[in-house]
Amino acid sequence: METVNAIGRRKAAIARVIVKEGNGNITINKRPLDVYFPSSILQYIVKQPLTTLDVAEKYDIKVNLDGGGYKGQAEALRLAIARALVKINPEDKHALRVEGFITRDPRAVERKKPGQPKARKRFQFSKR
User: pLDDT tens-digit profile of 1-13?
Assistant: First the structure.
């Protein structure tokens, strides 16, 4: 098997992954998964597509993560891994789609409007 590339985005985070056969190592920005994401919840989010298909120990994943916060980065990485697994084996797409790992979450920060303190908040109205 050759290497497979995929990209995942969430909020302002972008994850580029390279998946190849190996023994389950996940390297993010040249650091191991448990060092980059100390939280076990975020580690779980990242590994969800692999555990769904029972291939957690089958592939080595090298990741370039950029932008956003840690939660957005973890979810961008989950999407990128799911897309790479679908490229490797298209029959897995249905199982990942049912779990919701293929769908890109389009929600992002709304822009600030001029003449307002925030995107939707207004300055206090004064009649006089």
Answer: 689 999 999 999 9
Q: Please give the structure tokens belonging to residue 42.
A: 């975020």
**Residue 35 DSSP SS3:** helix
Q: Are 108 and 28 in contact (CB under 8 A)?
A: no
pLDDT, average across residues 47-57? 92
Chain-centre distance for alpha carbon 85: 14
CATH architecture designation of domain 4-99: 2-Layer Sandwich (3.30)
Are the C-beta atoms of 96 and 85 separated by less than 8 Å?
Answer: yes
pTM to 2 decimal places: 0.91
Half-sphere exposure of 75 (CA within 13 A, CB side): 15
User: Where along the chain do its domains lie?
Assistant: 4-99
